[in-house]
UniProtKB/TrEMBL annotation:
GO terms for molecular function: acyltransferase activity, transferring groups other than amino-acyl groups. Belongs to the plant acyltransferase family. Gene3D superfamilies: Chloramphenicol acetyltransferase-like domain (3.30.559.10). The keyword Repressor does not apply. It holds the Pfam family Transferase. It comes from the Eukaryota. It comes from Rhynchospora pubera. Keywords: Acyltransferase, Transferase. This is HXXXD-type acyl-transferase-like protein. The keyword Transferase applies.
Length: 465
């Protein structure tokens, strides 16, 4: 049966948004050993779906969002600059952020999707995520090095028939998911304050002092490339199926109890148990040979693990992808408790000394990562259910759903979101080759844990059941 055509999204107007002048902002910002590896990474693409505010026109919404974005950029000033890649005399390249160059600022796009409703975005149970979601995000996914890069931040407001979608595109070399949602919440906080005529003093100001490890001289970090063009490595994933899966707090509590009972340790967290489940079920779906090595990678934050700790509002990248590894036979011939314990050990071993060892190793041979680094035999647990996505209230209520674009996706990528209803519930966005997704949808261990999604009527406030 032929697939229906993808509904079109029309761009109406693009605005440049610049912050008010701040004489205290440095014009050159060095990048840390956690930022530089992300230079070739796709932009972070996340967005929130809202009901159409009944008391505001789209022009009023856009004006409020643009005004509040100007104020947010005043505080999050790296996002208003541009990345500069410099070829050094004698070889190598360095990079930094310049604030105050020509054309600085963020992009704000107003778009319209004439044929798309809220119900189309919130895919029904059993349906794949719609392909048109990628049209809700502006900018190319990868960097274009022509002396400077694209804007580091871009926003797109897309009008739907009965709602709006606010997509935010954020250069990953500037900051990680923790900082991304810090910015998104601050922007919403400013917008909500402006809606009632209140001058907003942000509850959480970003900290821009970069962390550098001693023993390697002063920044900038020098990369062993002959030109900026060598950094750019394009990645085109094969056709994937993408689905959102919902897990209630009750289902997750049972899963956690099972993992702790089976491993006999009592220290397995909810997310460790869920990661172990996904690792087992996806590995089973892939049908690997028994001796095949397979890994579960987890994006682990460094902020609270360093000693002394980084400020909780540290703005930048501070994350590593650590891996638990075993064979397919050991993973599947044992119970969930073994997989959960392997994941737990990786997280527990991510200590201050381990982080510093990784930084020292990187500084001896600094490189830039790309999506080809991810092993096709592994899964990657990205994002976090701790990110406050549904706390982003621009003044017209809680979002109905959080969704992503097409960036940073490959076979085995699993992204975690907080569940809409809160209380410890979790949503997982799973990207797999079509044959693997079909097998996962039939996996008995997986089906025993996954929950029905929240009904659209409940999201819209039409029903409480």
């Amino acid at each position: 049966m032929p697939s229906s055509p993808t509904p079109s999204v029309r761009t109406i107007k693009t605005y440049a948004v610049t912050p008010r002048p701040n004489p205290e902002v440095p014009r050159k910002l060095d990048m840390s050993s956690w930022d530089v590896p992300m230079l070739c990474g796709n932009y972070i693409q996340k967005g929130l779906l809202f009901k159409y505010p009944p008391d505001l026109s789209v022009e009023q919404i856009i004006q409020r969002l643009r005004n509040s974005l100007e104020e947010a950029l005043f505080h999050f000033y790296p996002l208003s600059g541009r990345l500069r890649i410099v070829t050094c005399e004698g070889g190598g390249v360095t990079c930094h952020v310049e604030v105050g160059i020509d054309g600085e600022g963020a992009e704000f796009v107003h778009a319209v999707a004439d044929e798309i409703r809220i119900a189309d975005v919130v895919a029904a149970d059993g349906q794949d995520l719609p392909k048109f979601l990628k049209e809700f995000f502006p900018l190319d996914l990868a960097l274009n090095f022509d002396g400077c890069t694209n804007p580091l931040l871009a926003i797109q407001l897309t009008e739907l028939i009965d709602g709006i979608f606010i997509g935010c595109v954020f250069n990953h070399a500037i900051a990680d998911g923790t900082s991304y949602w810090h910015f998104y919440n601050a922007w919403a906080e400013i917008s909500q304050g402006k809606a009632v005529g209140k001058k907003v003093v942000l509850s959480r100001l970003p900290v821009h002092d970069k962390w550098f490890i001693g023993g390697y001289g002063e920044p900038p970090i020098k990369l062993p490339y002959s030109s900026p063009a060598e950094i750019v490595v394009r990645f085109s994933p094969p056709p994937l199926r993408e689905r959102m899966f919902h897990f209630t707090s009750e289902s997750l509590a049972k899963l956690k109890a099972r993992a702790n009972h089976e491993c006999g340790k009592g220290t397995i967290s909810t997310f460790q148990a869920l990661s172990a489940l996904m690792w087992r079920c996806i590995t089973r779906a892939r049908g690997f040979a028994p001796e095949q090595k397979t890994s579960c990678r987890l994006a682990i934050q460094n902020r609270t693990r360093l000693q002394p700790q980084l400020p909780p509002n540290y703005f930048g990248n501070s994350v590593y992808a650590a891996a638990a590894t075993t064979t397919a036979a050991e993973l599947l011939n044992n119970n969930l408790g073994l997989a959960a314990w392997l994941v737990h050990e990786v997280v527990s071993n991510h200590t201050d000394s381990a982080i510093r060892d990784m930084v020292h190793t990187y500084m001896q041979n600094p490189i830039v990562y790309n999506l080809h680094f991810f092993d096709k035999h592994s899964i990657m647990m990205g994002s976090s259910p701790r990110f406050d996505m549904y706390g982003c209230d621009f003044g017209w209520g809680k979002a109905l759903a959080a969704r992503s674009g097409s960036a940073n996706k490959f076979d085995g990528k699993v992204s975690a979101y907080p569940g809409w209803e809160g209380g410890g519930s979790i949503d997982l966005e799973v990207c797999l080759l079509p044959e693997y997704m079909s097998a996962l949808e039939r996996d008995e261990e997986f089906l025993a844990v996954v929950s029905p999604p929240i009904k659209l009527e409940v999201l819209l406030g039409i029903s409480d059941k």
